[in-house]
Amino acid sequence: MTGTMRAPRTRGLLSGTLLVLLGLWGGLLPFVGPYFGFGFAPDETWVYDTDRLQLSVAPAAAVVLGGLIVLAGANRVLGMLGAWLAALGGAWFAVGHTVAALWDASGVGAPLGTGEGQRIAEQLAGFTGLGVVIAFLAGLALGRFAVAGAREAAAREAAGAAESDRPGSGTTQPLVYGRYARENPPGPAPHQPHHGDQPVAGEQRYDR
Questions:
Q1: What whole-number distance in Å separates Cα of residue 83 and Cα of residue 20?
Q2: pLDDT digits (tens, 9 = 90+) for 110-125
Q3: Between 207 and 148, the higher pLDDT residue
Q4: Of 73, 83, 129, 204, whose CB has the highest number of CB atoms within 10 Å?
């Protein structure tokens, strides 16, 4: 069982790296977006408030931490835990700004774009679309850790069964030679004369 919990460190290399990068993007976009004219009001960099903490920083921290666990995890349970953590962060990116209205959070600010297309792109890149992509990558990482574990467990069971069937593994029954033996080799028994019946334990032989 312990062997099935191990996983190659390369198992979550790609998905973990992408999760870390996307988490950093989502957490930093509200603060550095105004440098490029792509972000959220106010049109100033590094503006911090509690709404940005709840809706950007917190889910970004969950995604980055989960991605690092997926990236470096050599244990399947740990890797799956990291994938779940990243998935929850992605889900919060996608729906957090809507759910936060329950406690009167005003949001991180209006998109900076003047055109409808840019405003939609900013909303997707910072929240909804970003969260969907993160949740998708986390699901892929979760599947890789879970399915590979089941496949490798089945391979170990098959290898164990093959090992038990090998000659000399302790499961071969000794052959009995003689009149009452159920199995006899096609040739003469080893180290036994090949003329006539051979005596077995408990049998009395009368020669005439």
A1: 11
A2: 999 989 999 999 999 9
A3: 148
A4: 83
Residues contacting residue 118 through CB under 8 Å, at least 6 positions apart = 38, 111, 112
**Coil, helix or strand at residue 6:** strand
Closest CA to 19 of 144, 150, 151, 149: 144
What is the rounded CA–CA span in Å between residue 100 and residue 127?
13
- pTM > 0.85: yes or no: no
CB 112 within 8 A of CB 40: yes
Whether the CB-CB separation of 7 and 144 falls below 8 Å is answered with no
Characterize 104-128 residue by residue with b for buried, 16 or more Cβ atoms within 10 angstroms of its Cβ, and e for exposed.
ebebbbebbbeeeeeeeebbebbbb
Query: What are the Cα distances from residue 25, in Å, to 16, 30, 43?
Result: 14, 9, 18
- Neighbouring residues of 86: CB distance < 8 A, sequence distance ≥ 6: 19, 23, 62, 63, 65, 66, 67, 70, 134, 137, 138, 141
Is omega for the bond preceding 193 within 30 degrees of 0, making it cis? no
Structure tokens at 159: 């290898």
Query: What backbone torsions phi and psi does residue 158 show, to the nearest 5 degrees?
Result: -65, -40
